[in-house]
């Protein structure tokens, strides 16, 4: 959904202006005002939240058909990977399924590269695709997975040709201790690690009683996200729960600049936070965290929409 950003000219506004000029609807409109040529750096598109929710509905169906979860080593995880991979393959990505073993079961990371750009400077965005065994994992972490997927599909729709190379990732077995993302980082040569300019992580971005947390890490990445929310007039707080809580951690540990977004898990929203963000103070950001009720109804659409748009804004901005 389009949220108005101050100072941004929407395509619709440009079309309206051009229509008025070409139809002569503006009286005495000579000399015609100059319409600025498109700038070299393409603006990030709006990410349709309906599409993101469509992916969440599919992940919910996959869980329902596979014993109620999408956990590592279970059929619902592999079905989730197959769903995401098919979308990316059809959109022109080069995909790789990376296999590993954890707790005696096969796990998978899905890596998708967008052809083009400087492969010596890679901007990467990722999210964990596995749930816990207790439930379908729609906020944790269908939300991040669906938003990263829809951003990748938006790259394809725009046929975006950024200066830097783009790579998207869906991690397996995060819930067992970031097993998939650790495996990926360990599998990279030091030369290939050095080529990753940024790793952006999205783990829980549609919490039903949301907060707007920006990882307090690489300053450039953090500023990019904060600028986006400032443009919407939304206050953010630094994400300070610690660096060991999600898949950005293995990247950070080898010196790769990291950042990300988070809308809250089992911590309680304070009165001050409810005053600036709305929602319910004295309640968890996500009362269904790691529970069977983390279903399609456990999503705040406004938070999902804003965070998906911020994700695309950062991917475009950092890679242009
Ligand atoms: N990674 C956690 C999970 O998947 C979620 C989480 C809790 C989190 N606190 C966090 C993610 C802080 C990022 C930052 O269960
Ligand atoms: Zn989790």
TrEMBL record:
Signal peptide coordinates: 1-36
GO MF annotations, alphabetized: aminopeptidase activity; metal ion binding; metalloexopeptidase activity
Top-level taxon of origin: Bacteria
UniProt subcellular location: Secreted
Keywords for this protein: Disulfide bond, Hydrolase, Metal-binding, Protease, Secreted, Signal, Zinc
Coiled-coil segments on the chain, per record: none
InterPro entries listed in its UniProt record: M28_fam, M28_SGAP-like, Peptidase_M28
Peptidase M28 domain sequence ranges: 109-314
Similarity field: Belongs to the peptidase M28 family. M28A subfamily.
Protein name: M20/M25/M40 family metallo-hydrolase
